[in-house]
Write a structure and sequence with these properties.
alpha/beta
Length: about 375
């Protein structure tokens, strides 16, 4: 008979497994499963890729006949519908599980509550909620997309100690060190899409890729290349931009039809979207809704002060990832955000969720209060 301490230990292991899918499962949620019989782990697995076997199926295959009468610890309610794979809840019933502990219910209306009901109808004891906060945090983007029709938006910023991002002449390489720049690769790899502005493309000519040579210490499996999105109201992105020299899909988003430029960009492999907004600018809210409708769970914004400020002002940032370098750039250097606030009453308070050193730089993870 398992104790509460045992339950925590096995669910912690299931969450550890689920995290191995951070870079590969999108648009599916990250899920881990551990099967325990007589105090021994007899099967474990995680969901590695959309279309591949779910965590429960991997764990059941490893457990074999030992799954009969065992307990399964799974970080998300077992699915109850036929998608690319058969329902996991039914497979757990067939295997003869005695008990299933799920960290949280699935927000997907095709599943929510149905998977646990299948298990209970078969006489399996079901407990839901153990380490639910941790499980939800791991799938914040999936839950936000399913529940609210928007992806989870992270805004990545790099700044000096005095809150500057580059010199007045545009020079900005490099404020942070190589360890911080490598760390950014993780956020890119976890994202369904990376958003930047045409100003950044024209000034820095970034590729915005997840660079394979920097994966070895932390990645599991083949990273799904994130969609690279450029906010470009007038379709000014050059056809020879570095974006088009790397594998992966590129979308240029304009605010009005520009047939000649759109055709030129299409010739180098770009998709072009037109999302009319106000004052000739792209409606970023509409863009996020479209990305979510296409299956984007998490979006990383890597852009200059203007685009970064537009997301912040619109209240569309769920999480700030700020790298602070121990350097001073002076008062004439560029600010972190283009967001003029008139008085102290207009200040925006953030909550610090994590602080850690990354090489010689400090990384802050913050969320709006």
């Amino acid at each position: 008979m398992s104790t509460p301490t045992d339950d925590l230990r096995y669910m912690s292991e299931a969450l550890r497994l689920a995290r191995q899918g951070r870079y590969t499962t999108q648009p599916n949620p990250r899920v881990g499963c551990v099967i325990v019989k007589d105090g021994i782990i007899v099967g474990e697995g995680y969901h590695a890729r959309a279309g591949g076997p779910h965590a429960e199926i991997v764990a059941l295959k490893q457990a074999g006949h030992r799954a009969f009468g065992a307990t399964a610890y799974v970080t998300l309610e077992p699915c109850a519908h036929h998608g690319r794979t058969p329902p996991c809840a039914n497979e757990l019933v067939i295997a003869g599980l005695r008990r299933v502990v799920a960290a949280t219910e699935d927000a997907n209306p095709l599943v929510a509550g149905k998977g646990t009901q299948i298990l209970r109808d078969a006489g399996i004891v079901v407990d839901v909620g153990l380490m639910g906060d941790e499980a939800r945090a791991l799938n914040a983007g999936f839950l936000r997309r399913i529940n609210g029709g928007l992806p989870w938006v992270r805004l990545k910023l790099a700044m000096s100690l005095d809150g500057r991002t580059g010199m007045a002449n545009g020079e900005s390489k490099w404020i942070t060190g190589p360890d911080a720049r490598r760390d950014v690769q993780k956020w890119r790899a976890m994202s369904s899409a990376i958003i930047t502005g045409v100003g950044t493309v024209l000034a820095d000519n970034p590729a915005l890729t997840v660079r394979p040579e920097e994966w070895s210490e932390w990645y599991y499996g083949d990273v799904v290349p994130p969609l690279r999105v450029v906010l470009d109201a007038q379709f000014r992105t050059p056809a020879n931009a570095a974006l088009f020299t790397a594998p992966g899909r590129v979308v240029i988003v304009g605010a009005s039809e520009q047939p000649a430029r759109q055709q030129e960009l299409a010739a180098v492999g770009a998709d072009t979207w037109v999302l009319p907004g106000r004052d000739g600018r792209v409606d970023i809210g509409a863009l996020l809704k479209k990305l979510a409708a296409d299956g984007a769970n998490e979006v990383l914004v890597e852009a200059g002060a203007t685009v970064a400020g537009s997301f912040a002002k619109a209240g569309l940032v769920d999480e700030y990832i700020v790298y602070m370098a121990p350097v001073l750039l002076g008062s004439s250097a560029r600010p972190l955000l283009d967001w003029p606030l008139a008085s102290i009453r207009d200040q925006r308070r953030l909550v610090i969720r994590d602080t850690r050193m990354v090489g010689g730089d400090l990384r802050l993870t913050l969320r709006p209060k």
